Task: inverse folding
């Protein structure tokens, strides 16, 4: 497929603009380009055909089953998109005087109220633009809290070995050193290992519950209590909130700070680089450290994003919550858990779950013995799924499971879809024993087969060579 620059023809235009009928004000030379921008020159039909062709190459939730684990790639109601597109929301300016945007301010206040209620927090900032941005903000709250108390020895953040990769990265960006704790045989935090690293230099623990292998840690109250005994705080990674929203609250588990992925859990399409939103909530004793803005009670100098955050993403979240109501939010979580357990049960006896116990919203298959028997890897299975019209699950994550495939069906999939997915996976299981070579060269029907991933990672081509 040609790049859009390769479609360009000198002098071709996309629109006809009328002659300017107002006096022109010359632009200062210092503001002028010395070299024209290298933009492709195309007609309108060239542009629409190019992006339509790109669209046909992309597999999204609207195309078929998309069980990407730990990412909640679920279908989002179109009504929320329609509401966010209302001109009363899209046509405002962030510098408009507050008296003229009272409806928008009410959206922000109501969103904070509902999100605090769902998470068990006392206050919240809507500024952060993504999950990792929320992690960074939440850790700044923890750091500010310790510094304000003159407790400068708090330099460590504890992170489980099954954590999302952004957790240690965010902590490192805030100047903390990272202490990893292993998982036990059940896939949860090893309590003895946690106790061995707790001391009065620990600023906090980062955790998500249910965790990355989709298991609710039954020791969560003991875990948070242990950290608090040493004066540390506990941070909740909201990546897996879709499994528990409306059922249990992180604030009631002992967490002090939380970020929420509105773009994963509350009705904004996740993927493609954005848009995102990662509001950060906290308990009462931390609210004074929140980023300040017009709707915040905080008076800090901290500001992690301009104005109020990604406003239209917040509107979609509020629309989603108000449409479902308290009972609907709860049912969404319950159905997500039901779907994950149903699909895992359908696959038992074929593939082997890494942890053979009731899961929450996602589960992990461990294909190490399957690989030994057939020579077919988790990557081969994932690539073969593309030929079957199904998006691959998350591969090789978390690292504590060898040959891992992580599935998250989400609450928006039907039983029929899950049955079909299970049959496809069972078919691939049999194929691995009968025709392993075809799986090692899959996909065969996609626009791109198997790129050299090592070369792409080490020598990426990121711009067009004019």
Result:
């Amino acid at each position: 497929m040609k790049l859009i620059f390769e479609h360009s023809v000198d002098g071709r235009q996309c629109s006809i603009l009328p002659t300017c009928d107002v006096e022109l004000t010359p632009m200062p030379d210092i503001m002028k380009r010395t070299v024209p921008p290298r933009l492709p020159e195309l007609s309108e039909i060239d542009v629409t055909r190019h992006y339509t062709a790109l669209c046909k190459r992309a597999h999204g939730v609207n195309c078929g089953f998309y069980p990407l684990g730990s990412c909640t790639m679920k279908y989002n109601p179109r009504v929320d998109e329609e509401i966010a597109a209302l001109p009363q929301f899209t046509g405002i300016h962030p510098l408009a005087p507050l008296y003229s945007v009272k409806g928008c301010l009410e959206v922000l206040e109501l969103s904070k109220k509902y999100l605090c209620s769902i998470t068990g927090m006392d206050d919240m900032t809507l500024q952060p633009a993504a999950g990792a941005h929320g992690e960074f903000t939440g850790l700044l709250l923890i750091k500010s809290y310790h510094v304000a108390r003159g407790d400068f020895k708090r330099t460590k953040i504890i992170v489980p070995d099954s954590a999302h990769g952004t957790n240690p990265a965010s902590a490192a960006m805030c100047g903390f050193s990272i202490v990893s704790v292993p998982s036990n045989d059940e896939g949860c935090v090893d309590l003895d290992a946690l106790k061995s690293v707790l001391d009065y230099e620990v600023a906090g623990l980062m955790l998500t519950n249910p965790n990355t292998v989709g298991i609710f840690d039954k020791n969560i109250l003991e875990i948070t209590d242990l950290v608090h005994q040493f004066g540390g705080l506990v941070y909740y990674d909201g990546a897996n909130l879709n499994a528990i929203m409306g059922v249990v609250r992180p604030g009631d588990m002992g967490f002090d700070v939380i970020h929420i992925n509105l773009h994963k859990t509350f009705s904004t399409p996740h993927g493609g680089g954005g848009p995102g939103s990662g509001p950060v909530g906290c308990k009462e004793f931390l609210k004074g450290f929140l980023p300040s803005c017009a709707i915040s009670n905080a008076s800090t100098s901290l500001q992690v994003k301009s104005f109020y955050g990604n406003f239209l993403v917040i509107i979609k979240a509020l629309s989603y919550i108000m449409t479902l109501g308290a009972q609907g939010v709860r049912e969404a979580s319950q159905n997500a858990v039901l779907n994950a357990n149903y699909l895992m049960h359908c696959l038992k006896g074929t593939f082997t779950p890494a942890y053979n116990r009731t899961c929450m919203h996602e589960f992990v298959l461990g294909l190490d013995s399957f690989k030994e028997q057939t020579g077919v890897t988790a990557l081969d299975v994932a690539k073969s799924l593309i030929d079957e019209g199904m998006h691959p699950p998350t591969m090789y994550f978390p690292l504590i499971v060898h040959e891992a495939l992580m599935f998250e069906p989400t609450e928006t999939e039907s039983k029929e879809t899950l049955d079909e997915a299970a049959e496809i996976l069972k078919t691939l299981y049999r194929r691995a024993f009968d025709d392993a070579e075809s799986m090692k060269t899959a996909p065969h029907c996609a626009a791109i087969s198997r790129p050299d991933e090592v070369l792409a990672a080490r020598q990426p081509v990121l711009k067009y060579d004019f």
User: Anything to note?
Assistant: The chain has a mean pLDDT of 94. Residues 327-456 form a domain with the Aspartate Aminotransferase, domain 1 fold (CATH 3.90.1150.10). The radius of gyration is 25 Å. Strands lie at 123-125, 156-160, 177-181, 202-207, 233-238, 257-260, 280-282, 363-366, 394-395, 404-407.
